[in-house]
Amino acid sequence: MSPKEQYEQLVRGTAKVLGEKELLDKLEKGKPLRAKLGVDPTAPDIHLGHTVVLEKLRQFQSLGHQAVLIIGDFTATVGDPTGRSSTRPPLTREEVLANAETYTDQAFKILDREQTEVVYNGEWFRKMTYEEVLKLNARVTMQQMLQREDFKSRIEGSVEVRLHEIQYPIMQGWDSVEVRADVELGGTDQLFNILVGRDMQKSQGMEAQVAICLPILEGTDGVKKMSKSYGNYVGVDESPSEMFGKTMSVSDELMDRWYPLLLGMDRNQELHPMEAKKQLAASIVERYHSEEKAKEARDDFESKFVKNDNEAVWPKVELGQERRIIASVSIAYSEGFNLKRSGGEIRQLISQGAIQIDGEKITDIKFSLPEKLEGKILRLDKKHSVRLI
Fold it and tell me: Is residue 35 within 8 Å of 183, Cβ to Cβ?
């Protein structure tokens, strides 16, 4: 593949590339590029949101380039302040290393293990003297650091910004110097940190890395970015049925955004949205499990659904002896859609008149469902309903 063809493939699907001409120039030299991705294993599992950038890194590997996966065993104990409205709680190194083990195992479901150089940034940061830390800090200005939107908004809102948080972009930038990165990948929220890396490399007389930013994947709610803390995630290590069910819960609009980001293609507009969503869910399950497991998950999902007179399909849910409305709705979300809803969220839905039983709104949080429920439709919100059995 020619350098120009490689370039076109590598920039496809990105949100922003800083240094496009530089990327083409690097490719034309004919040497394998060192494509860096830094991850802080603050949690043991990765979800589909993480896979967007991992898939791009895998693309570099497929074109013969070297993937460099930096495990932030040092930076994770500081905590990336990106997008945070408050200071992250610190993690111990033992917690980070335990998370890193499962994180990398899951990442290698996407990356080629043999073509991935795994390094830990504690290898250089733990050896630094205080004098070396001061010299590192001298490479940037406070004004430069305070240009970050999350820092500015916290200061304007009288929310504290701790000095160790300001160190984070500096450390991420120095990682690029240590591994001699030609390219750094990240989400759009990482652009500031990646640019610091470019500046750090230039200060060392190195050729600056190209910044490639990928879109942020929205979670199953279609509003916030996918995150375990928001409860809107699909984990790559989840069971096939969970993975399939959660994908089926997303809106049609969100499905159209997931297709190109997760599968690298647009959905077939000739297909009915329900069928297109099933194919999306099956493709995701096949990617992280197998074709056989994807078929089983689809069959299992379809066996739980029935059609009503309006051709809509709802999962069938059994509540057992439970009749309290808040507990019943919680069970319905969990059993029908693999979604978790807190008591507060359910109370809000009730106050909004979103929850209905056979078309009748429920407005009392102490409401109890009737004893005979078979065949009744419990509407949870405008996108989710279940048939009670």
Answer: yes
Q: For residue 227, tell me if it sits in a domain.
A: no
Burial of 20 (0-12, 13-18, 19+ CB in 10 A): middle
87 plus 30 within the same structural domain? yes
Write out the chain's pLDDT in tens, 389 residues.
899 999 999 999 899 999 999 999 999 999 999 999 998 877 778 899 999 999 999 999 999 999 999 998 888 877 555 554 444 566 777 888 888 888 888 899 999 999 999 999 999 999 999 999 999 988 888 887 777 777 777 777 888 878 778 888 899 999 999 999 999 999 998 899 999 999 999 999 999 999 999 999 999 989 888 987 788 999 999 999 999 999 998 998 999 999 999 998 889 988 888 899 999 999 999 999 999 999 999 988 887 764 443 445 688 899 999 999 999 999 999 988 888 899 999 999 999 889 999 888 999 999 999 998 888 889 998 878 888 98
This prediction has a pTM of 0.71
- Whether the Cβ atoms of residue 97 and residue 103 lie closer than 8 Å to each other: no
Query: Does the residue 172 lie in any domain?
Result: yes
Residue entry with tokens 């610190």: 90
Domain boundary among 153, 185, 217: 217
Same domain, 242 and 183: no
Q: Which of 274, 303, 332 is the last residue of a domain?
A: 303
Are 309 and 216 within 8 A, CB to CB? Answer: no
Q: With respect to residue 10, please indicate whether it lies within any of the assigned structural domains.
A: yes
